[in-house]
Design a protein that fits this description.
The chain is an alpha/beta fold. The protein has 3 domains: about 5-45 and about 65-115 and about 200-280, Rossmann fold, CATH 3.40.50; about 135-200, DNA polymerase, domain 1; about 305-365, Ubiquitin-like (UB roll) (Roll), CATH 3.10.20. It has 14 helices and 13 strands. The protein has helices at about 15-30, 50-60, 85-95, 120-150, 155-175, 185-195, 220-235, 245-250, 255-265, 270-280, 305-315, 315-320, 330-335, 340-345, and strands at about 5, 35-40, 40-45, 60-65, 65-70, 100-105, 200-210, 235-240, 285-290, 295-300, 320-330, 350, 360-365. The longest helix is centred in the middle third of the chain and has 30 residues, at about 120-150. It is flat and about 60 Å long. The protein binds guanosine-5'-diphosphate. It holds the Pfam family YchF-GTPase_C. ATPase that binds to both the 70S ribosome and the 50S ribosomal subunit in a nucleotide-independent manner. InterPro entries: ATPase_YchF/OLA1, Beta-grasp_dom_sf, G_OBG, GTP-bd, P-loop_NTPase, TGS, TGS-like, TGS-like_dom_sf.
C-alpha cells in the first residue's frame, strides 16, 4: 500500500494525531475495522463522497473505500542524523515511506514541555528539515564514494552518476532539500530516484493547533501564519488540525461529536482533510468499479494505463486484459443513469494504451 510517514519533533502531537487518524477514520467507514499492521502503522479508509453519490444511482449491496497507510515515526530529534537518540534507526523508517506529513506544534500550552522551550514553528521546521537534509547528505556521500571507486571502469552511467552526485552533495550542503535540485537529463533523474532521498519526497505540513484556533482554519494563529509562509515558499500545503480535539471527538458517539463540532463551528473533520491531502501528495488517483454487488474505489498512480489499473484488482486482469469499458463519474452525475450515459455515447471501450482519469468508472474484460 501507499503510505505517509508522520514526522515532527517530540511532543508536537504526532502520536495523538496518528491514533486519531487511524481510529476515527475507520470507525466512520463502518465495517472496516481499524487495522494495525505494526504498532506504528495504521491503515485508513480514504474518504470520498463520490461513492455515496454513485450509490444513490446504482444502489449496490455495499460500498468499499480504498485505503492508505500512515506510519508514526517517533524519535526524530536534533542530532538524529549524527546518531543521537535512536536517530539513525528512525531515519531508516522515513526512507521507507512514500510521502511525509510533518507535524508542527502551533499550539501554546505550558503544561506540555517543548524540547526547545517554546512554540516556534520556524525554528522547529528548520530543526527537522536540517536533520533530514543531513541524512540525505550521508546517503549521497556514500554513493559518491562508491562511484569514485568505480570510475576507473570508464562506464558512462557511473560517470554521469558521479558528476550528478557531486552537484547534489553541494546542493544539500547548502541546506537545500533534494526536492529543489535540478537534474540535467534522464540518466541523472534515474540516479536521483535510485537514492530514495528523504528530502525528495513530497511533504505536507500539519499545523497542530488548540481547539479554539480551529474555526477560521487557523487564520487567527500567528504560528499558523508563520508556517503557511514557510510552506508557501516550498510549494507545500498546510493542513490545520487539532490533534487533541480529534482525539476527544474520537471518544464520543457520532451524534455527540457532531454537536461538539457545531459548537466549535467546524464543518469538516480535520482528519478527513488530512487523509485527503496525504492521498493527494502521494500522487494518487481513484477509479471506481460500480455494480449491484458493490461500489468500490481503487487507487492508481496519476499516470496509469488501463491494464495496470486492472492489475490493481487482480494480476490476472492485467495478464489477460482485453479492454476496459469506461465512463466518467461526472457524466453519470450529469446524466443521472448508466443507460443515459450509454445513450449519449459516453460509455466507451478503451484499449491497453488508455490513460485512466481520476473518477473513471471501469469494467474490465479479460481472458482467463
Ligand atoms: P508526539 O511526541 O509528537 O507523538 O506527541 P504526543 O501526541 O504524545 O503529544 C504530546 C502531548 O501534547 C500530549 O500530552 C498531548 O495530549 C498534547 N497535545 C497534542 N495535541 C495537542 C493540542 O492540539 N493542544 C494541546 N494543548 N495539547 C496537545
Amino acid at each position: 500500500g501507499f503510505n505517509c510517514g508522520i514526522v515532527g519533533l517530540p511532543n508536537v502531537g504526532k502520536s495523538t494525531l496518528f491514533n486519531a487518524v487511524t481510529r476515527t477514520a475507520n470507525a466512520q467507514a463502518a465495517n472496516y475495522p481499524f487495522c494495525t499492521i505494526e504498532p506504528n502503522v495504521g491503515r485508513v479508509a480514504v474518504p470520498d463522497e463520490r461513492m455515496e453519490k454513485i450509490n444513490a444511482i446504482i444502489k449496490a449491496k455495499k460500498i468499499v473505500p480504498t485505503f492508505m497507510e500512515f506510519v508514526d515515526i517517533a524519535g526524530l530529534v536534533k542530532g538524529a542524523s549524527r546518531g543521537e537518540g535512536l536517530g539513525n534507526q528512525f531515519l531508516g523508517h522515513i526512507k521507507q515511506v512514500d510521502a511525509i506529513v510533518h507535524v508542527v506544534r502551533c499550539f501554546e500550552d505550558s503544561n506540555i514541555t517543548h524540547v526547545d522551550g517554546n512554540t516556534d514553528p520556524a525554528r522547529d521546521v528548520d530543526t527537522i528539515n536540517t536533520e533530514l537534509i543531513y541524512c540525505d547528505f550521508e546517503t549521497v556521500t556514500k554513493s559518491v564514494d562508491k562511484m569514485s571507486r568505480l570510475l576507473k571502469n570508464n562506464d558512462k552511467k557511473i560517470l554521469i552518476s558521479h558528476e550528478c552526485g557531486l552537484r547534489l552533495k553541494d546542493h544539500l550542503e547548502q541546506l537545500k532539500p533534494a526536492r529543489t535540485f535540478s537534474v540535467k537529463n534522464e540518466d541523472e533523474e534515474d540516479y536521483l530516484k535510485s537514492l530514495h532521498l528523504i528530502t525528495k519526497k513530497q511533504v505536507l505540513y500539519a499545523a497542530n493547533v488548540n481547539e479554539n484556533e480551529l474555526a477560521d482554519n487557523g487564520e487567527n494563529s500567528k504560528h499558523v501564519k508563520v508556517l503557511r509562509e514557510i510552506a508557501h515558499k516550498e510549494g507545500a500545503q498546510v493542513v490545520v488540525v487539532s490533534a487533541r480535539l480529534e482525539e476527544e471527538l474520537g471518544q464520543l458517539e457520532p451524534e455527540d461529536a457532531q454537536v461538539y463540532m457545531d459548537d466549535l463551528n467546524i464543518k469538516e473533520s480535520g482528519l478527513d482533510r488530512l487523509i485527503k491531502a496525504g492521498y493527494s501528495i502521494l500522487g494518487l488517483m481513484t477509479y471506481f468499479t460500480a455494480g449491484v454487488q458493490e461500489i468500490r474505489a481503487w487507487t492508481i498512480p496519476k499516470e496509469c494505463k488501463a491494464p495496470q489499473a486492472a492489475g490493481v484488482i487482480h494480476s490476472d486482469f492485467e495478464k489477460g486484459f482485453i479492454c476496459a469499458e469506461v465512463y466518467a463519474y461526472d457524466d453519470l452525475m450529469r446524466l443521472g443513469s448508466e443507460a443515459k450515459v450509454k445513450e449519449a455515447g459516453l460509455y466507451r471501450k478503451e484499449g491497453r494504451d488508455y490513460l485512466c482519469k481520476d473518477g473513471d468508472i471501469m469494467n474490465f474484460l479479460f481472458n482467463v
